[in-house]
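Protein modeling request. Please complete all fields; requests missing the sequence field cannot be processed.
Requester role: graduate student
Desired output: 3D structure, token encoding
Chains: 1
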Amino acid sequence: MAYMMDSWWGSGDGCMGGYGGWGFPFFGMWGMMLVWFIVFLIIGYFVYQDANKRGMNGLLWWILIIIPMIGILALILYVILRESSGNKITEGKTAMDILKERYAKGEITSEQFQKMSEELKK
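Delivered output (122 residues):
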């Protein structure tokens, strides 16, 4: 019975022809580990880019994704905890536009608006 099990688990002379056993017969165990490491690198890169765009620490999230045992949990945590947008102020808005928005939202009074707009015009 033991000779049959050896052929199943890739001892070199069995059904896998000595290429490493189940899963990925072309590379064996090390090749499969390399494939998964590359997959984690790619996922980590996308998480790094997304975290930087949202104003978060991309390097921290990249490191957590690269560590495979913690990576899946960190990826789930990142998706749950990430901010909706990195920067509330979009490019192209001037200081006057932001001031008008704040006045329209009622964050500042008309006196504050007039004083600040005069200062911006200087």
